[in-house]
Amino acid sequence: MLDRCDFSHARAVWLSRQILPHEPALRAQLSRWRVPDGLDVDDVIQETYAKLVMLEDVEGIRSPRAYLFQVARSVILMHVRRSRVVSIQAVEQIEQLNVASDDPGPDEQVSDRQQLHQLATMIAGLPKASQAAMMLRLVHELSHREIGERVGMTANAVQKCLAKSLSTFMRQLGRGGTSGSEASRTRAVKDDQPIHVEARDQL
Amino acid sequence: MSKRETSSEIDDAAAHWAMRIDEAVLDDAEQAAFDTWLRADVRRIGAFARAQAVLVHVKRAKALGSDFEPATFAPEREKGGAADVGDDADDVAEEEPSAPTILTRRRLLVGASALAASAVAAIVLPTRQAAARIYETARGESRLVPLEDGSTVTLNTDTRIAVTMGGDRRAVELLRGEVLFKVAGAGRPPFQVEAGGASLQTEKATFAVCRLDARPLQVKVCDGTVAVERPSTKPRLLHANTQALLPDDGTMIERSVTPEALQRELAWQEGMLSFEDTPLTQAAEEFARYSDRRIQISDPAVAAETVTGRYAANNPEGFARAVALGLNLHVQSTPGGIIVAR
Q: Distance from CA of residue B9 to its chain's centroid?
Protein backbone atom coordinates (compact mmCIF):
# COMPACT_ATOMS: atom_id res chain seq x y z
CA MET A 1 0.00 0.00 0.00
CA LEU A 2 2.78 2.43 0.92
CA ASP A 3 4.57 2.03 -2.39
CA ARG A 4 1.45 3.36 -4.09
CA CYS A 5 1.46 6.56 -2.03
CA ASP A 6 2.74 9.70 -3.68
CA PHE A 7 4.06 11.87 -0.85
CA SER A 8 5.99 14.09 -3.27
CA HIS A 9 5.98 17.85 -2.99
CA ALA A 10 4.14 18.06 -6.31
CA ARG A 11 1.27 15.97 -4.95
CA ALA A 12 1.15 18.01 -1.75
CA VAL A 13 0.94 21.19 -3.83
CA TRP A 14 -1.88 19.71 -5.90
CA LEU A 15 -3.75 18.67 -2.76
CA SER A 16 -3.28 22.08 -1.18
CA ARG A 17 -4.41 24.04 -4.27
CA GLN A 18 -7.03 21.77 -5.78
CA ILE A 19 -8.50 19.85 -2.85
CA LEU A 20 -7.98 21.71 0.42
CA PRO A 21 -10.07 24.76 -0.62
CA HIS A 22 -13.10 22.48 -1.17
CA GLU A 23 -12.78 20.62 2.11
CA PRO A 24 -15.13 22.87 4.12
CA ALA A 25 -17.84 22.37 1.48
CA LEU A 26 -17.25 18.63 1.53
CA ARG A 27 -17.54 18.56 5.30
CA ALA A 28 -20.81 20.43 5.10
CA GLN A 29 -22.02 17.92 2.53
CA LEU A 30 -20.87 14.98 4.65
CA SER A 31 -22.85 16.18 7.61
CA ARG A 32 -25.92 16.31 5.37
CA TRP A 33 -25.21 12.83 4.01
CA ARG A 34 -25.23 11.48 7.53
CA VAL A 35 -22.08 9.45 7.83
CA PRO A 36 -22.89 5.92 9.10
CA ASP A 37 -22.45 5.10 12.78
CA GLY A 38 -18.97 4.25 13.87
CA LEU A 39 -17.50 6.65 11.37
CA ASP A 40 -17.14 10.39 11.74
CA VAL A 41 -16.56 13.14 9.23
CA ASP A 42 -12.86 13.34 10.07
CA ASP A 43 -12.45 9.62 9.39
CA VAL A 44 -14.02 10.04 5.97
CA ILE A 45 -11.82 13.04 5.23
CA GLN A 46 -8.67 11.12 6.16
CA GLU A 47 -9.62 8.09 4.09
CA THR A 48 -10.49 10.36 1.19
CA TYR A 49 -7.05 11.98 1.26
CA ALA A 50 -5.52 8.50 1.47
CA LYS A 51 -7.23 7.61 -1.80
CA LEU A 52 -6.14 10.88 -3.39
CA VAL A 53 -2.51 10.33 -2.41
CA MET A 54 -2.59 6.82 -3.88
CA LEU A 55 -3.74 8.02 -7.31
CA GLU A 56 -1.06 7.41 -9.86
CA ASP A 57 -1.71 10.61 -11.79
CA VAL A 58 -3.83 13.62 -10.95
CA GLU A 59 -3.14 15.71 -14.05
CA GLY A 60 -6.08 14.16 -15.84
CA ILE A 61 -8.58 15.26 -13.20
CA ARG A 62 -10.57 18.07 -14.80
CA SER A 63 -12.70 19.01 -11.84
CA PRO A 64 -10.87 18.25 -8.62
CA ARG A 65 -13.86 19.43 -6.61
CA ALA A 66 -16.32 16.98 -8.13
CA TYR A 67 -13.70 14.27 -7.94
CA LEU A 68 -13.15 14.96 -4.24
CA PHE A 69 -16.86 14.60 -3.54
CA GLN A 70 -17.02 11.42 -5.57
CA VAL A 71 -14.12 9.84 -3.69
CA ALA A 72 -15.64 10.78 -0.33
CA ARG A 73 -18.91 9.21 -1.36
CA SER A 74 -17.15 6.01 -2.37
CA VAL A 75 -15.45 5.90 1.04
CA ILE A 76 -18.81 6.11 2.78
CA LEU A 77 -20.36 3.51 0.51
CA MET A 78 -17.52 1.13 1.17
CA HIS A 79 -18.08 1.45 4.90
CA VAL A 80 -21.83 1.11 4.58
CA ARG A 81 -21.50 -2.07 2.53
CA ARG A 82 -18.88 -3.50 4.82
CA SER A 83 -20.84 -2.91 8.00
CA ARG A 84 -23.76 -5.08 6.76
CA VAL A 85 -25.81 -3.74 9.62
CA VAL A 86 -27.15 -0.92 7.55
CA SER A 87 -30.26 -1.53 5.52
CA ILE A 88 -30.22 -1.75 1.75
CA GLN A 89 -32.30 1.42 1.77
CA ALA A 90 -29.45 3.37 3.33
CA VAL A 91 -27.12 2.22 0.59
CA GLU A 92 -29.62 3.26 -2.04
CA GLN A 93 -30.10 6.60 -0.38
CA ILE A 94 -26.41 7.33 -0.45
CA GLU A 95 -26.03 6.08 -3.99
CA GLN A 96 -28.76 8.40 -5.13
CA LEU A 97 -27.12 11.44 -3.61
CA ASN A 98 -25.84 13.73 -6.26
CA VAL A 99 -22.23 14.52 -6.35
CA ALA A 100 -21.89 18.25 -5.91
CA SER A 101 -21.79 20.50 -8.94
CA ASP A 102 -18.52 21.77 -10.31
CA ASP A 103 -19.13 25.33 -9.26
CA PRO A 104 -17.52 26.25 -6.02
CA GLY A 105 -19.99 27.86 -3.65
CA PRO A 106 -19.72 31.50 -2.67
CA ASP A 107 -17.94 30.53 0.53
CA GLU A 108 -15.13 28.87 -1.34
CA GLN A 109 -14.71 31.85 -3.62
CA VAL A 110 -14.49 34.21 -0.71
CA SER A 111 -11.94 32.05 1.02
CA ASP A 112 -9.97 31.88 -2.18
CA ARG A 113 -9.72 35.63 -2.32
CA GLN A 114 -8.99 36.03 1.32
CA GLN A 115 -6.57 33.17 1.74
CA LEU A 116 -3.57 35.25 2.65
CA HIS A 117 -5.60 37.28 5.06
CA GLN A 118 -6.87 34.03 6.52
CA LEU A 119 -3.34 32.72 6.97
CA ALA A 120 -2.36 35.92 8.72
CA THR A 121 -5.33 35.59 11.04
CA MET A 122 -4.52 31.95 11.73
CA ILE A 123 -0.95 32.79 12.67
CA ALA A 124 -2.12 35.70 14.79
CA GLY A 125 -4.39 33.27 16.62
CA LEU A 126 -1.49 31.13 17.84
CA PRO A 127 0.03 31.61 21.29
CA LYS A 128 2.79 34.21 21.00
CA ALA A 129 5.74 31.84 21.34
CA SER A 130 4.29 29.52 18.70
CA GLN A 131 3.69 32.54 16.50
CA ALA A 132 7.34 33.51 16.71
CA ALA A 133 8.55 29.99 15.97
CA MET A 134 6.15 29.66 13.04
CA MET A 135 7.16 32.99 11.50
CA LEU A 136 10.85 32.11 11.80
CA ARG A 137 10.12 28.82 10.06
CA LEU A 138 7.83 30.15 7.33
CA VAL A 139 9.25 33.55 6.53
CA HIS A 140 12.91 33.10 7.39
CA GLU A 141 13.04 29.37 6.73
CA LEU A 142 15.29 28.71 9.71
CA SER A 143 15.94 25.16 10.89
CA HIS A 144 14.43 23.95 14.15
CA ARG A 145 17.80 24.28 15.80
CA GLU A 146 18.30 27.85 14.58
CA ILE A 147 14.81 28.78 15.75
CA GLY A 148 15.59 27.19 19.11
CA GLU A 149 18.71 29.29 19.46
CA ARG A 150 16.75 32.48 18.88
CA VAL A 151 13.78 31.81 21.10
CA GLY A 152 15.57 29.85 23.82
CA MET A 153 14.13 26.39 23.22
CA THR A 154 15.63 23.03 22.30
CA ALA A 155 15.28 21.90 18.68
CA ASN A 156 13.03 19.15 19.94
CA ALA A 157 10.72 21.60 21.69
CA VAL A 158 10.60 23.74 18.54
CA GLN A 159 9.60 20.68 16.51
CA LYS A 160 6.83 19.89 18.99
CA CYS A 161 5.62 23.46 19.06
CA LEU A 162 5.54 23.73 15.24
CA ALA A 163 3.78 20.36 14.91
CA LYS A 164 1.18 21.52 17.38
CA SER A 165 0.58 24.72 15.42
CA LEU A 166 0.31 22.74 12.19
CA SER A 167 -2.21 20.47 13.82
CA THR A 168 -4.22 23.54 14.87
CA PHE A 169 -4.13 24.82 11.27
CA MET A 170 -5.26 21.42 10.00
CA ARG A 171 -8.37 21.65 12.18
CA GLN A 172 -9.10 25.26 11.28
CA LEU A 173 -8.66 24.81 7.52
CA GLY A 174 -10.91 21.79 7.46
CA ARG A 175 -13.64 23.92 8.85
CA GLY A 176 -12.81 26.76 6.54
CA GLY A 177 -12.66 29.26 9.35
CA THR A 178 -10.06 31.00 11.39
CA SER A 179 -12.13 33.12 13.70
CA GLY A 180 -12.16 32.55 17.41
CA SER A 181 -15.64 31.12 17.41
CA GLU A 182 -14.61 28.54 14.82
CA ALA A 183 -11.67 27.58 16.95
CA SER A 184 -13.81 27.00 20.00
CA ARG A 185 -16.28 25.00 17.96
CA THR A 186 -13.40 22.81 16.84
CA ARG A 187 -12.50 22.24 20.42
CA ALA A 188 -16.04 21.32 21.32
CA VAL A 189 -16.06 18.73 18.58
CA LYS A 190 -12.79 17.35 19.85
CA ASP A 191 -14.18 16.94 23.33
CA ASP A 192 -17.06 14.95 21.91
CA GLN A 193 -14.85 12.35 20.46
CA PRO A 194 -14.51 9.92 23.35
CA ILE A 195 -18.28 9.47 23.19
CA HIS A 196 -17.93 8.47 19.57
CA VAL A 197 -15.36 5.89 20.49
CA GLU A 198 -17.65 4.32 23.03
CA ALA A 199 -20.48 4.21 20.55
CA ARG A 200 -18.16 2.48 18.15
CA ASP A 201 -17.17 -0.15 20.70
CA GLN A 202 -20.76 -1.07 21.26
CA LEU A 203 -21.31 -1.83 17.61
CA MET B 1 -8.64 -2.91 18.03
CA SER B 2 -10.28 -2.37 21.34
CA LYS B 3 -9.86 1.39 21.39
CA ARG B 4 -9.88 2.84 17.93
CA GLU B 5 -7.52 5.77 17.56
CA THR B 6 -9.47 9.00 17.03
CA SER B 7 -8.97 10.95 13.84
CA SER B 8 -7.84 13.86 15.96
CA GLU B 9 -5.03 11.82 17.51
CA ILE B 10 -4.03 10.73 14.04
CA ASP B 11 -3.95 14.36 12.89
CA ASP B 12 -1.59 15.27 15.72
CA ALA B 13 0.81 12.48 14.84
CA ALA B 14 0.54 13.31 11.12
CA ALA B 15 1.40 16.96 11.89
CA HIS B 16 4.46 15.77 13.80
CA TRP B 17 5.71 13.66 10.89
CA ALA B 18 4.99 16.34 8.30
CA MET B 19 6.97 18.93 10.28
CA ARG B 20 9.77 16.47 10.93
CA ILE B 21 10.09 15.48 7.26
CA ASP B 22 9.89 19.10 6.15
CA GLU B 23 12.92 19.82 8.34
CA ALA B 24 15.26 17.11 7.02
CA VAL B 25 15.40 13.67 5.47
CA LEU B 26 14.61 10.87 7.92
CA ASP B 27 17.40 8.53 8.94
CA ASP B 28 16.92 4.77 8.51
CA ALA B 29 15.51 4.15 11.96
CA GLU B 30 13.08 7.07 11.67
CA GLN B 31 12.04 5.98 8.20
CA ALA B 32 11.25 2.52 9.53
CA ALA B 33 9.23 3.98 12.40
CA PHE B 34 7.39 6.25 9.97
CA ASP B 35 6.56 3.36 7.61
CA THR B 36 5.29 1.25 10.50
CA TRP B 37 3.16 4.13 11.69
CA LEU B 38 1.68 4.71 8.23
CA ARG B 39 0.96 1.06 7.54
CA ALA B 40 -1.20 0.54 10.60
CA ASP B 41 -4.24 2.51 9.43
CA VAL B 42 -5.26 3.90 6.06
CA ARG B 43 -6.49 7.03 7.83
CA ARG B 44 -2.89 7.76 8.81
CA ILE B 45 -1.85 7.83 5.16
CA GLY B 46 -4.62 10.30 4.41
CA ALA B 47 -3.92 12.42 7.47
CA PHE B 48 -0.24 12.62 6.59
CA ALA B 49 -0.98 13.59 2.97
CA ARG B 50 -3.36 16.22 4.29
CA ALA B 51 -0.82 17.51 6.83
CA GLN B 52 1.68 17.97 4.00
CA ALA B 53 -0.93 19.78 1.92
CA VAL B 54 -1.79 22.09 4.83
CA LEU B 55 1.89 22.80 5.37
CA VAL B 56 2.29 23.74 1.69
CA HIS B 57 -0.70 26.02 2.08
CA VAL B 58 0.59 27.62 5.27
CA LYS B 59 4.00 28.22 3.69
CA ARG B 60 2.38 30.81 1.51
CA ALA B 61 2.44 32.96 4.63
CA LYS B 62 6.00 33.72 3.51
CA ALA B 63 4.34 36.27 1.26
CA LEU B 64 3.32 38.19 4.37
CA GLY B 65 6.96 39.30 4.52
CA SER B 66 9.17 39.91 7.50
CA ASP B 67 7.36 42.93 8.86
CA PHE B 68 3.99 41.20 9.06
CA GLU B 69 2.45 42.15 12.38
CA PRO B 70 0.28 39.42 13.85
CA ALA B 71 -1.07 41.98 16.31
CA THR B 72 -2.90 43.69 13.46
CA PHE B 73 -4.96 40.55 13.04
CA ALA B 74 -5.29 39.77 16.71
CA PRO B 75 -8.64 41.38 17.69
CA GLU B 76 -10.57 38.47 16.16
CA ARG B 77 -9.27 36.13 18.72
CA GLU B 78 -10.52 38.12 21.65
CA LYS B 79 -14.11 37.56 20.52
CA GLY B 80 -14.74 33.90 21.13
CA GLY B 81 -11.51 32.02 20.99
CA ALA B 82 -9.88 33.48 24.05
CA ALA B 83 -10.40 30.35 26.10
CA ASP B 84 -8.98 28.24 23.35
CA VAL B 85 -5.91 30.36 22.99
CA GLY B 86 -5.38 30.52 26.70
CA ASP B 87 -5.52 26.78 26.83
CA ASP B 88 -2.97 26.38 24.14
CA ALA B 89 -0.72 28.89 25.77
CA ASP B 90 -0.75 26.84 28.94
CA ASP B 91 0.18 23.70 27.06
CA VAL B 92 3.02 25.41 25.33
CA ALA B 93 4.27 26.89 28.56
CA GLU B 94 5.41 23.44 29.65
CA GLU B 95 7.92 23.49 26.86
CA GLU B 96 8.71 27.17 26.81
CA PRO B 97 8.86 28.82 30.18
CA SER B 98 7.86 32.50 30.09
CA ALA B 99 8.34 32.75 26.39
CA PRO B 100 7.37 36.40 25.99
CA THR B 101 10.03 37.55 28.46
CA ILE B 102 12.64 35.56 26.65
CA LEU B 103 11.57 37.02 23.36
CA THR B 104 11.73 40.53 24.68
CA ARG B 105 15.18 39.99 26.08
CA ARG B 106 16.29 38.35 22.86
CA ARG B 107 15.00 41.27 20.94
CA LEU B 108 17.40 43.56 22.72
CA LEU B 109 20.24 41.21 21.86
CA VAL B 110 19.34 40.78 18.25
CA GLY B 111 18.58 44.44 17.77
CA ALA B 112 17.11 45.51 14.47
CA SER B 113 17.44 42.12 12.78
CA ALA B 114 14.70 40.44 10.87
CA LEU B 115 13.70 38.52 13.97
CA ALA B 116 12.86 41.71 15.79
CA ALA B 117 10.90 42.91 12.82
CA SER B 118 8.73 39.85 12.50
CA ALA B 119 8.43 37.70 15.55
CA VAL B 120 8.45 40.33 18.22
CA ALA B 121 6.31 42.93 16.52
CA ALA B 122 3.33 41.40 18.25
CA ILE B 123 4.74 42.35 21.62
CA VAL B 124 6.27 45.74 20.97
CA LEU B 125 4.11 47.94 18.81
CA PRO B 126 6.07 50.87 17.46
CA THR B 127 4.19 54.13 17.08
CA ARG B 128 4.30 55.22 13.50
CA GLN B 129 4.88 58.75 12.39
CA ALA B 130 3.07 60.28 9.48
CA ALA B 131 6.08 59.95 7.15
CA ALA B 132 5.52 57.76 4.10
CA ARG B 133 6.59 54.20 4.44
CA ILE B 134 7.81 52.29 1.40
CA TYR B 135 6.86 48.67 0.71
CA GLU B 136 8.10 46.75 -2.28
CA THR B 137 8.33 43.33 -3.81
CA ALA B 138 10.89 41.80 -6.14
CA ARG B 139 10.02 39.98 -9.34
CA GLY B 140 8.07 36.84 -8.51
CA GLU B 141 7.23 37.96 -4.97
CA SER B 142 3.90 38.93 -3.51
CA ARG B 143 3.16 40.35 -0.14
CA LEU B 144 0.25 41.32 2.08
CA VAL B 145 0.68 44.48 4.13
CA PRO B 146 -1.86 45.14 6.88
CA LEU B 147 -2.32 48.86 7.46
CA GLU B 148 -3.00 50.32 10.86
CA ASP B 149 -6.52 51.47 9.91
CA GLY B 150 -7.53 47.82 9.38
CA SER B 151 -7.20 47.97 5.60
CA THR B 152 -4.84 45.66 3.75
CA VAL B 153 -2.73 46.11 0.65
CA THR B 154 -1.47 43.12 -1.30
CA LEU B 155 1.50 43.77 -3.55
CA ASN B 156 1.94 41.71 -6.68
CA THR B 157 5.28 41.02 -8.35
CA ASP B 158 7.80 43.86 -8.85
CA THR B 159 5.71 46.49 -7.08
CA ARG B 160 6.52 49.55 -5.04
CA ILE B 161 4.17 51.69 -2.93
CA ALA B 162 4.48 54.53 -0.44
CA VAL B 163 2.00 54.51 2.45
CA THR B 164 1.11 57.53 4.56
CA MET B 165 -1.10 56.83 7.54
CA GLY B 166 -2.00 58.94 10.50
CA GLY B 167 -4.09 61.88 11.56
CA ASP B 168 -6.74 62.46 8.92
CA ARG B 169 -4.78 60.92 6.10
CA ARG B 170 -4.98 57.48 4.56
CA ALA B 171 -2.95 57.65 1.40
CA VAL B 172 -1.03 55.25 -0.79
CA GLU B 173 1.04 56.09 -3.82
CA LEU B 174 1.49 53.31 -6.37
CA LEU B 175 4.95 53.90 -7.79
CA ARG B 176 4.94 50.82 -10.01
CA GLY B 177 3.37 47.38 -10.30
CA GLU B 178 0.04 46.05 -9.16
CA VAL B 179 -1.79 46.16 -5.84
CA LEU B 180 -5.05 45.02 -4.36
CA PHE B 181 -6.61 47.25 -1.72
CA LYS B 182 -9.13 46.09 0.83
CA VAL B 183 -10.17 49.33 2.43
CA ALA B 184 -11.80 49.24 5.82
CA GLY B 185 -14.41 51.91 6.07
CA ALA B 186 -16.94 53.29 8.54
CA GLY B 187 -16.33 56.81 9.68
CA ARG B 188 -12.71 57.10 8.66
CA PRO B 189 -11.15 59.73 6.41
CA PRO B 190 -11.29 58.87 2.70
CA PHE B 191 -8.70 56.40 1.47
CA GLN B 192 -6.66 57.91 -1.35
CA VAL B 193 -4.55 56.25 -3.99
CA GLU B 194 -2.29 58.15 -6.38
CA ALA B 195 -1.14 56.31 -9.46
CA GLY B 196 0.37 57.71 -12.65
CA GLY B 197 -1.44 61.04 -12.60
CA ALA B 198 -4.79 59.63 -11.49
CA SER B 199 -6.30 60.02 -8.02
CA LEU B 200 -8.60 57.37 -6.69
CA GLN B 201 -10.67 57.87 -3.58
CA THR B 202 -12.99 55.63 -1.60
CA GLU B 203 -14.72 55.26 1.75
CA LYS B 204 -14.72 51.49 1.67
CA ALA B 205 -13.96 49.22 -1.26
CA THR B 206 -11.98 46.29 -2.57
CA PHE B 207 -10.15 47.27 -5.73
CA ALA B 208 -7.01 46.60 -7.68
CA VAL B 209 -4.78 49.08 -9.46
CA CYS B 210 -2.19 48.12 -12.02
CA ARG B 211 0.50 50.50 -13.25
CA LEU B 212 2.92 48.96 -15.72
CA ASP B 213 5.16 50.53 -18.35
CA ALA B 214 3.68 50.39 -21.82
CA ARG B 215 0.21 49.58 -20.57
CA PRO B 216 -2.58 51.95 -19.64
CA LEU B 217 -3.31 52.34 -15.95
CA GLN B 218 -5.96 49.82 -14.96
CA VAL B 219 -8.46 49.89 -12.09
CA LYS B 220 -10.68 46.95 -11.14
CA VAL B 221 -13.38 47.36 -8.53
CA CYS B 222 -14.58 44.17 -6.82
CA ASP B 223 -16.59 45.71 -4.08
CA GLY B 224 -17.77 49.18 -3.06
CA THR B 225 -17.31 52.38 -5.05
CA VAL B 226 -14.15 54.18 -6.14
CA ALA B 227 -14.02 57.76 -7.41
CA VAL B 228 -11.48 58.32 -10.18
CA GLU B 229 -10.14 61.77 -10.97
CA ARG B 230 -7.56 63.06 -13.40
CA PRO B 231 -6.52 66.65 -14.06
CA SER B 232 -7.90 66.33 -17.59
CA THR B 233 -11.35 64.94 -16.72
CA LYS B 234 -14.20 65.24 -14.30
CA PRO B 235 -14.37 62.73 -11.43
CA ARG B 236 -16.15 59.50 -12.26
CA LEU B 237 -17.53 56.82 -9.99
CA LEU B 238 -16.57 53.21 -10.59
CA HIS B 239 -18.89 50.66 -9.02
CA ALA B 240 -18.41 47.01 -8.12
CA ASN B 241 -17.60 44.63 -10.97
CA THR B 242 -16.22 47.36 -13.16
CA GLN B 243 -12.90 47.64 -14.87
CA ALA B 244 -11.47 50.87 -16.21
CA LEU B 245 -8.51 51.57 -18.46
CA LEU B 246 -6.97 55.02 -18.23
CA PRO B 247 -4.62 55.56 -21.17
CA ASP B 248 -2.26 58.53 -21.30
CA ASP B 249 -4.50 60.50 -23.68
CA GLY B 250 -6.78 61.33 -20.78
CA THR B 251 -9.70 59.15 -21.88
CA MET B 252 -11.24 56.45 -19.79
CA ILE B 253 -12.57 53.12 -21.06
CA GLU B 254 -15.02 51.54 -18.69
CA ARG B 255 -16.60 48.11 -18.90
CA SER B 256 -18.36 45.79 -16.53
CA VAL B 257 -16.86 42.43 -15.68
CA THR B 258 -18.25 39.39 -13.91
CA PRO B 259 -17.09 38.63 -10.36
CA GLU B 260 -15.67 35.36 -11.71
CA ALA B 261 -13.56 37.15 -14.27
CA LEU B 262 -12.28 39.54 -11.61
CA GLN B 263 -11.49 36.61 -9.40
CA ARG B 264 -9.54 35.04 -12.20
CA GLU B 265 -7.56 38.16 -12.89
CA LEU B 266 -6.69 38.49 -9.21
CA ALA B 267 -5.48 34.90 -8.87
CA TRP B 268 -1.98 36.33 -8.45
CA GLN B 269 -2.87 36.87 -4.79
CA GLU B 270 -2.52 33.12 -4.43
CA GLY B 271 0.63 32.97 -6.50
CA MET B 272 -1.38 31.76 -9.48
CA LEU B 273 -2.12 32.99 -12.97
CA SER B 274 -5.49 32.09 -14.32
CA PHE B 275 -6.34 32.10 -18.01
CA GLU B 276 -9.46 31.53 -20.00
CA ASP B 277 -9.03 31.22 -23.73
CA THR B 278 -6.03 33.51 -23.45
CA PRO B 279 -3.68 33.62 -26.46
CA LEU B 280 -0.38 31.95 -25.67
CA THR B 281 1.63 35.12 -26.38
CA GLN B 282 -0.43 37.07 -23.90
CA ALA B 283 -0.01 34.35 -21.27
CA ALA B 284 3.75 34.35 -21.93
CA GLU B 285 3.81 38.13 -21.42
CA GLU B 286 2.01 37.69 -18.10
CA PHE B 287 4.56 35.11 -16.96
CA ALA B 288 7.36 37.50 -17.91
CA ARG B 289 6.22 39.81 -15.11
CA TYR B 290 6.91 37.09 -12.55
CA SER B 291 10.16 35.53 -13.69
CA ASP B 292 13.32 36.29 -15.63
CA ARG B 293 12.88 33.02 -17.49
CA ARG B 294 11.11 34.07 -20.68
CA ILE B 295 8.80 31.90 -22.70
CA GLN B 296 9.69 32.32 -26.37
CA ILE B 297 7.28 31.57 -29.19
CA SER B 298 8.35 32.40 -32.72
CA ASP B 299 5.73 30.49 -34.71
CA PRO B 300 2.69 32.79 -35.12
CA ALA B 301 0.37 29.80 -35.37
CA VAL B 302 1.60 28.55 -31.99
CA ALA B 303 1.39 32.06 -30.52
CA ALA B 304 -2.28 32.26 -31.46
CA GLU B 305 -3.20 29.03 -29.66
CA THR B 306 -5.20 29.71 -26.52
CA VAL B 307 -4.83 28.42 -22.99
CA THR B 308 -7.21 27.93 -20.10
CA GLY B 309 -6.51 27.01 -16.49
CA ARG B 310 -4.65 28.05 -13.36
CA TYR B 311 -0.88 27.91 -13.20
CA ALA B 312 1.77 28.76 -10.61
CA ALA B 313 2.97 32.26 -11.49
CA ASN B 314 6.58 31.57 -10.58
CA ASN B 315 6.87 28.45 -12.71
CA PRO B 316 6.92 29.38 -16.43
CA GLU B 317 8.60 26.08 -17.19
CA GLY B 318 5.77 24.09 -15.61
CA PHE B 319 3.23 26.21 -17.47
CA ALA B 320 5.01 25.69 -20.78
CA ARG B 321 5.20 21.96 -20.24
CA ALA B 322 1.55 21.67 -19.23
CA VAL B 323 0.45 23.71 -22.23
CA ALA B 324 2.71 21.79 -24.60
CA LEU B 325 1.16 18.56 -23.43
CA GLY B 326 -2.34 19.83 -24.14
CA LEU B 327 -1.58 21.47 -27.48
CA ASN B 328 0.87 18.88 -28.71
CA LEU B 329 3.82 21.27 -28.76
CA HIS B 330 7.48 20.87 -27.85
CA VAL B 331 9.29 22.64 -25.05
CA GLN B 332 12.99 23.24 -24.94
CA SER B 333 14.66 24.77 -21.92
CA THR B 334 17.73 26.76 -22.82
CA PRO B 335 19.82 29.14 -20.73
CA GLY B 336 18.27 31.97 -22.75
CA GLY B 337 14.68 30.97 -22.06
CA ILE B 338 11.94 28.45 -22.65
CA ILE B 339 11.26 27.78 -26.31
CA VAL B 340 7.81 26.55 -27.26
CA ALA B 341 7.38 25.28 -30.81
CA ARG B 342 5.34 22.86 -32.89
A: 32
Q: At what angle are helices A155-174 and A23-33 packed, to 10 degrees?
A: 60
Cα B161 to Cα B150: distance, rounded to the nearest angstrom: 17
> Which residues of chain B carry a pLDDT beneath 70?
1-2, 67, 71-131, 186
Interface test with B, best of A46, A78, A140, A184 (most B CBs within 10 A): A46
Q: Please, what are the domains in chain B?
A: 7-64 (no CATH), 71-118 (no CATH), 133-262 (2.60.120.1440), 271-341 (3.55.50.30)
Does A114-203 carry CATH code 1.10.10.10?
yes
- So what's the ipTM on this one? 0.81
∠ at Cα A82 (A78, A88), nearest 5°?
85
Q: What is the band of A98 on the pLDDT scale with cuts at 50, 70, 90?
A: low
Put simply, the answer to whether A166 touches B18 (Cβ < 8 Å) is: yes
Within 10 angstroms of residue A160's Cβ, the number of other Cβ atoms is: 21
| Confidence category of residue A91, pLDDT binned at 50, 70, 90 | low
Helix (H, G, I), strand (E, B) or coil at A85: coil
Picking from A20, A136, A184, the nearest residue to B81 by CB comes out as A184
